[in-house]
Amino acid sequence: MIAKHGSYYEWTKRKEFQVGDSLMFEYDGNVNDVTQVSSRLEYQFCNSLSPKAFYNTGHDVVTLTEPVDDVLEINSDLEFKSCDTISPVALHNAGQDLIRLTKPGIRYFITSKIGHCEAGLKLRVVVRPLSKSVPKKMQLSPFDRFIKWLRDSFTPHPHH
After folding, report:
1. End-to-end C-alpha distance for the chain, whole angstroms
2. How far apart are alpha carbons 104 and 120 in whole angstroms?
3. CA-to-CA dists, residue 104 to 25, 101, 131, angstroms
4. C or N terminus of the chain, fewer CB within 10 Å?
5. 3 Cβ partners below 8 Å, 6+ apart?
């Protein structure tokens, strides 16, 4: 199926693409081109300054070679509940992103893939402040805790 410009967005909203699927773009190569960007934000803001790929033949076939899910960090509980992807504070799309939880507070993460957030693919993280005092239990090494457990568990107790 070849999507016309006006209906392209509506057509893609109803589609689920898989790795290995191919998309065919047919257009006038003298007037237009196709630019593949790396993220939803680059797409949303038409930022093609560092394209992932560029096509201009007018008869291009693009095969999807990697998953298209990403994780958006959003600001508020309202955005989290409504799966609002409009103004994310961060985008994580490398597939194995490390997110450091350095400040206390609530962090919200959702997927941008249509329908997946609404189906529950989202995460709310509560980051608690560091405790000023370390519990006594945590001051012992794992080995010392094991020895203490052995001693407490297998020491005979006098019967009354």
Report:
1. 86
2. 24
3. 47, 8, 11
4. C
5. 11, 12
Length of the chain: 160
Are residues 132 and 145 in contact, defined by beta-carbon separation less than 8 angstroms?
no
Q: Hunting for tokens 């191919």 — which residue is that?
A: 22
pTM to 2 decimal places = 0.45
Q: Which CATH number fits domain 69-160: 3.30.200.20, 2.60.320.10, 1.10.3290.10, 2.60.40.420?
A: 2.60.40.420
Q: Where are the alpha helices (DSSP H) in 45-128?
A: 77-82
**Non-local CB neighbours of 90 within 8 Å, separated by 6+ positions:** 72, 73
pLDDT of residue 109: 92
> Mean per-residue pLDDT for 143-149?
78
